[in-house]
């Protein structure tokens, strides 16, 4: 049986590095994981006034998370943090209070940047945001992908062998984390 993993690429840009990395992860996933890649596109802004009658997009997103066996965040770094659309998706998923759709779900974080720091600040912000509203975070290995600008061909296929190796190693650790943390 393969565990179903919702893989959230945290950028809306159609050619984003996060989406390319998420798709590469889906292709490289071991047989024990089935990664479904999504983005925060179409998730309306969180507004607590709407909680009594949540919008259909919120309900669909929450349902997708609740039916999963885990969540993998693939985030770029925007201004030393995560993109606002990703934070909004997390806010929508975490409500109503005490009923987070992420609760109990094993979580992994993959940050990336074309520059040398690999989105480490974004990953650290996710590590601050998620405890209390999600399940256990994969602590080791941490993965901050730098220099991703030349890792893909024109069709979005991963061509950088060193990155492929790192992603495969991370997926193996994440698969073990998911298996260990199934209720």
UniProtKB/TrEMBL annotation:
One of its GO terms (molecular function) is FMN binding. This is NAD(P)H-dependent oxidoreductase. PANTHER family: CHROMATE REDUCTASE, NAD(P)H-DEPENDENT FMN REDUCTASE LOT6. One of its GO terms (cellular component) is cytosol. Residues 4-143 form the NADPH-dependent FMN reductase-like domain. Transmembrane segments: none annotated.
